[in-house]
TrEMBL record, chain A:
Domain called EF-hand: residue spans: 144-179
UniProt name for this protein: Calcium and integrin-binding family member 2
One GO-annotated biological process of the protein: neuromast development
Species assigned in the record: Xiphophorus maculatus (Southern platyfish)
Entry-linked InterPro entries: CIBP, EF-hand-dom_pair, EF_Hand_1_Ca_BS, EF_hand_dom
Stored PROSITE patterns: EF_HAND_1, EF_HAND_2
Automatic annotation (TrEMBL), chain B:
Official protein name in the record: Transmembrane channel-like protein
Source organism (scientific name): Xiphophorus couchianus (Monterrey platyfish)
Signal sequence coordinates: none
Gene Ontology cellular component annotations, sorted alphabetically: plasma membrane
Keyword ATP-binding: no
Predominant subcellular localization, coarse grouping: membrane
Length: 187, 743
């Protein structure tokens, strides 16, 4: 819109606007946020698509993620190698899914990925226990943890295999009234 | 790039990929035939110089298995068009796909190339120029839309402020500020309408101040017209200005381009209400689609586990609070699950609840009567002349209403301790009671106002008689009846004036809103800021810990504030017809509120210990807003339809009813048959609400049908997923462990 910037070509910006829920200004802002995480590593000129990845430790230090108990899982779910190293594309993708405009179905898919600690495409008892412990900072007794996880599986499991598949999870989460408002990060 | 493990969203991508390949296969089968036809084409084109087609031919021959649109049968052409449309749809829906970014970018590139290649080619043959033009226009339109979206997002104010509040207090407190911002947007539009189409034309093109009696301060009041006290009360020069109804002249067309002032005034009044309805209903429909079924107890633990953490939190203290509250909530849920709730003393509970409701009703009735009493008293004061009374007596009505609005909710809170409800249910009862309180107060106020209006109308008859006597006396003094004496020039300030009930109504609303604003701000400063200062600085010289025990820092009362905002808006809608300055005033008030409350919440409030959001509260507040909108436009509509306008002030003076201006415009500005048609449609004042009701009903039905459709789609997807899983199982068992090792 008249602003001469040299970070991206216009085609790149248009492509990002087509693939995410962000506007031009927000994408440029995201780039500056990505850049300030590691000013020496991240180039200012992205026109030739440099291959630059930032490690997990830098990303979870962002103020938006710092207090989130699931920050490691969030970054890992969006990284290509599963270890939490994000390129700028994945960085933008992460915040796009977590933004206000992303639809419920998309958020449900990624929420499932985040809570699936052992990445086996099922939310088994261990996954739920880990989630619960992160959520309560291990303040509950083991019996209480056991009870809650059992109840949760009992409520949501439709096919009776004692773990939650994506279909079970989606069925449960789409009816949750708070899901959209809590699964949201503003950047 | 083949996805490494099967995960939910990838099936989509696979499907598309397969479809593409399948298409390629089909085309390959057609290749030999096309090549032959290509050569035939080439030979023929050599004799006719069609260079563009020639180069296209070369391209087509070079590409593997690509179709040539002009050689295809109509149904193949259709299929190609379908493919192009599908690609376009894919591009549109790309951002909602759960693929990694790289995949998305690659798919985008591919689809764009495909569309570019075939869209231009599709346009060959008949209607080619039109098609190309259409394509170009669509592209330009898309680009314009995108730029407009960018511009709109850049214009949204206070984004960083709200983000800060979200990270400190979580999403429930921030939802109030988002609501405030949304209201600000609505008021901006209302302000634009009233300012641009009513106030500015009259100020620029109407007769200036002092030219006619209604635009001049009467001689009697002239002395004090500039006093601050009078201006603060919206009397004096403020009353005789574009801010109020009474100033406007009833001249049908003003200015050099014949601006129809009375028509504009009426239409803007109707338009503000219509716009508000449209916006509120549209937001409600959008929210209804997004929110799930509220208050379902079947997923209690699952929801607690997966949706209780607020991802917006970025402040360590708030995070600690949140962890603590989540732990407490789990412990409570476990307790409830373990012990079977024996309903002992159910009779006592029921009795207490009935008692509590009875007390609340008494409270409401008491406050209603108090307001009525105070308004009658103020009318008596007005008859005596306002100078003889103290400041309190002059502003009694507004102060009483504001104080009631402040103290009664606290009383309701105390009474609700009797009831022993679950906190979420208790919150809903509290909201309902506060709503009833505000509504009762407002309507009592209006009824009392109606009395005042009737009083003024009686006065009008008397004044009319007096004016005729006065005019007669003028002419008696200047000459005999038969002589054509020049009209006596009297200064407009000396002409006896008729009473103007519309301006009075406008003034009452403006005063009410100002006093409401002042009360809110003062409560904020004293209740929150002073309290925080005292707690912070008196803590080391006090016997008990002020910060942990009583009074400690205050929490932000989301529901109370939202209700206050909604009722404030209701008052604006009620009074905007009689005081065009109200939207402007409200805009200023909201602007100041935003900054003041943002500062106050960051400076003096602590994060809430237990968060009980009335789930689906977004739609609850919207529903309340809609009810208030409807109830506030009722009195205005009633006065427009039944009460004749004052004879001496306003743009409708001299008419029998205010909506006669429509009739007049139809008769004089439109061709004759128009007015006949409209006269058959009878009273516009009755038809409008009916139409609004119908539109409401239609919208509601449409959104319900949409949700049914979506439920259908969901069921279909589930069915698909079940069959997929079955297929997977078969796949796994037949390929054994190799697949698992590679995943």
């Amino acid at each position: 819109m008249g602003n001469k910037q040299t970070i991206f070509t216009d085609e790149q910006l248009d492509a990002y606007q087509d693939c995410t829920f962000f506007t031009r200004k927000e994408i440029l802002r995201l780039h500056s946020r990505y850049h300030e995480l590691a000013p020496h590593l991240v180039p200012m000129d992205y026109t030739n698509e440099p291959d630059c990845k930032l490690p997990l430790a830098l990303i979870v230090d962002m103020p938006e993620l710092k207090e989130n108990p699931f920050r490691n899982r969030i970054v890992e779910s969006f990284s290509e190698d599963g270890m939490g190293n994000l390129s700028f594309n994945e960085f933008v993708d992460m915040f796009s899914v977590l933004s206000e405009m992303a639809p419920r179905e998309l958020k449900a898919i990624y929420a499932f990925k985040i809570y699936d600690y052992n990445v086996d495409n099922y939310l088994c008892k261990e996954d739920l226990e880990k989630t619960l412990n992160k959520l309560t900072k291990e303040e509950l007794t083991p019996e209480e943890v056991e009870l809650v996880c059992e109840k949760a599986i009992e409520e949501a499991d439709l096919d009776g295999d004692n773990k939650l598949s994506y279909a079970d999870f989606e069925n449960m989460i789409t009816r949750a009234p708070d899901f959209l408002s809590t699964f949201h990060i503003r950047i | 790039p083949r996805p490494s493990h099967f995960s939910p969203g990838d099936e989509d991508f696979q499907e598309n990929h397969e479809r593409q390949k399948h298409k390629g296969k089909r085309r390959n089968g057609d290749r030999p035939k096309n090549k032959r036809e290509n050569q035939r084409r080439k030979r023929s084109s050599n004799s006719e110089p069609e260079t563009s087609e020639e180069s296209e031919d070369e391209e087509e021959v070079n590409n593997d298995g690509e179709v040539r649109p002009e050689l295809l049968s109509p149904e193949e052409l259709e299929k190609l068009k379908e493919a192009v449309d599908e690609k376009k749809k894919l591009i549109q829906s790309l951002r909602g796909k759960p693929w990694p970014m790289k995949q998305k970018l690659v798919t985008l590139r591919e689809s764009q190339l495909f569309v570019e290649k075939y869209e231009g080619a599709l346009g060959k043959g008949k209607g080619r120029k039109l098609y190309a033009y259409k394509v170009m226009m669509t592209k330009k339109w898309k680009k314009f839309q995108r730029d407009f979206e960018n511009f709109k997002t850049a214009c949204i104010p206070w984004e960083m402020k709200i983000k800060e509040i979200e990270s400190h207090f979580g999403s429930s407190v921030a939802s109030y500020f988002i609501f405030l911002r949304w209201m600000y947007g609505i008021n901006m539009i209302l302000f634009g309408l009233t300012f641009g189409l009513v106030m500015v034309p009259e100020a620029l093109m109407g007769r200036p101040y002092g030219s006619i009696p209604r635009k001049t301060v009467p001689r009697a009041e002239e002395a004090g017209a500039m006093d601050f006290a009078v201006l603060w009360d919206f009397g004096g020069y403020a009353q005789y200005s574009v801010l109020f109804y009474g100033y406007y002249n009833n001249q049908r067309a003003i200015g050099w381009f014949k601006f129809r002032m009375p028509l504009s005034y009426f239409l803007v009044g109707v338009g503000t209400v219509a716009y508000s309805y449209m916006v509120v209903i549209r937001t409600m429909a959008r929210n209804a689609n997004e929110s799930g079924v509220g208050d379902d107890n079947s997923f209690n633990f699952s929801w607690k586990m997966f949706t209780s953490w607020d991802y917006l939190i970025g402040n360590p203290e708030t995070a600690d609070n949140k962890f603590a509250s989540i732990t407490t909530s789990f412990k409570e849920a476990i307790l409830e699950e373990q012990e079977s709730r024996k309903d002992d003393n159910i009779h006592l509970t029921r009795f207490l609840r009935v008692l509590a409701n009875f007390l609340v009703l008494c409270c409401l009735a008491g406050s209603g009567y108090l307001i009525y009493f105070v308004v009658r008293r103020s009318q008596k004061f007005a008859l005596d002349g306002l100078e003889n009374h103290t400041w309190w007596e002059r502003n009694e009505v507004n102060m009483v209403m504001s104080l009631l609005g402040m103290f009664c909710p606290m009383l309701f809170d105390v009474i609700s301790a009797l009831e022993n409800y679950h906190p979420r249910v208790a919150l809903q009862w509290q909201l309902g009671r506060i709503f009833a309180l505000f509504l009762g107060n407002l309507y009592t106020f209006i009824i009392a106002l109606m009395d005042a209006i009737n009083l003024k109308r009686k006065e009008e008859k008397v004044v009319k008689y007096n004016i005729t006597m006065w005019e007669a006396s003028l002419y008696n003094g200047t000459g005999s009846e038969n002589s054509t004496a020049p009209p006596v020039t009297i200064h407009p300030a000396d002409v006896p004036r008729g009473p103007c009930w519309e301006t009075m109504v406008g003034q009452e609303f403006v005063r009410l809103i100002i006093s409401d604003t002042m009360t809110t701000y003062i409560t904020l400063l004293i209740g929150d800021f002073l309290r925080a200062v005292l707690v912070r600085f008196l803590n080391h010289c006090w016997c008990w810990d002020l910060e942990a025990g009583f009074p400690s820092y205050s929490e932000f009362d989301v529901s109370g504030n939202v209700l206050g905002l909604i009722f404030n808006q209701g008052m604006i809608w009620m009074g905007a017809f009689y005081a065009p300055c109200l939207p402007a005033l409200n805009l200023l008030r909201l602007h100041v509120s935003m900054y003041l409350q943002c500062w106050a919440v960051m400076c003096c409030n602590v994060p809430q210990e237990r968060v009980f959001k009335a789930s689906g509260s977004n739609n609850f507040y919207m529903a309340m807003l809609l009810v208030i909108l409807f109830l506030s436009t009722l009195p205005a509509i009633y006065t427009i339809v039944t009460i004749p306008p004052s004879f001496d002030c306003g743009p409708f003076s001299g008419k029998n009813r205010m909506f006669d201006v429509i009739q007049e415009t139809l008769e004089s500005d439109f061709p004759a048959w128009f007015s006949k048609v409209f006269s058959y449609a009878s009273n516009p004042g009755l038809v409008l609400p009916f139409i609004l009701l119908m539109v409401l009903a239609i919208y509601y039905l449409q959104s319900t049908s949409k949700s049914y459709r979506e439920a259908n789609v969901e069921l279909k997807n589930k069915l698909q997923m079940v069959t997929q899983r079955l297929d997977n199982f078969v796949f796994l068992t037949s390929y054994g462990s190799d697949f698992i090792l590679n995943a």
